[in-house]
Predict the structure of Tetraspanin.
Amino acid sequence: MLNIYATFLLITLFAIITLVAYIYSYRAQLAQGVDEGLRYDIHNYNKSSHRNHVLSIDAIQEKLKCCGVNGYKDWLLISPKKQIPRSCCMRQNNNHNDHNDHNNNWCRPENSTDLYPSGCSIRLKEILNENISLLASIITGVAFFPIFGAILSCCLANSKRSRYEILI
């Protein structure tokens, strides 16, 4: 019975190893998916039926201090009025008379130094690359528990087997 338990633990171990290999090998496709998702959300930013795109893009740009997919010029390409969302603007001063009026949802690109310089794709890829090794390390660390359990269950099975006396 303990050998069956050890077998299940080893199957779990192989599943964990497969998961780590899958995450590591498909990280490029994950980064490409991030780019595609950002582009989709930016193109649907100000459409009335896509309010969640506005909220998600604004949250990403404010939290990561980034603008657009590759930079603020992404917004200029899709905005007929050449406007950039307020979430791209660095809010270093609270002067309501400048072009960063907080009552307005847009800022104007006249002074690009007021805008976050890096694109969100770059920032998200940095975060992904920084944390993928951590994620793989955590999963690999968790993989030691099934190894340890399988070894202990095999040792326990062998010790129980050695206690039996063969009667002839």
